[in-house]
Amino acid sequence: MWENIAELLQLELNIIRTPLQCENRLKTILKRKRVAVSNNSKSGNIREIVKFEDELNKIASLDDSVQPEVLRSANKCTVLKESKKKKLKSQLAETIWKIHLDKEQNRERRHKEKLEFLQALADKLAPQK
Predict the structure, then answer these.
(1) Most CB atoms within 10 A, among 41, 45, 53, 67?
(2) Domain locations in the chain?
(3) What's the CA gap between 41 and 70, in Å, rounded?
(4) Where in this chain does the record put each HTH myb-type domain (predicted)?
(5) Cβ within 8 Å of residue 59, ≥6 positions away
């Protein structure tokens, strides 16, 4: 990934950086952000401006690899957050299930109405004693 970023910097901006420099730059920016956020959360401190805050927020909102959904180790598997796909699938499954139940209830209601109608018709057509 860092090699691709270094190549893109050279092609698009004509800036020559090594993959290691690209990686270290991101780590530096993230470290400075953590320090600034920590400083800003303490009462009485002068507020520090976080450089590239908007860009980092955009990356965090778009890229789920910043925080993995699942952590796996030799002993356990921890789910940190439910993926959007799973949420979408579960919402879709719920919606389909609700539609199915509604159809089934409507089918049952129509069946009862038909039976009542046929019973009423049979009662009228039956010979009266």
Answers:
(1) 53
(2) 2-66, 81-129
(3) 29
(4) 1-34
(5) 66
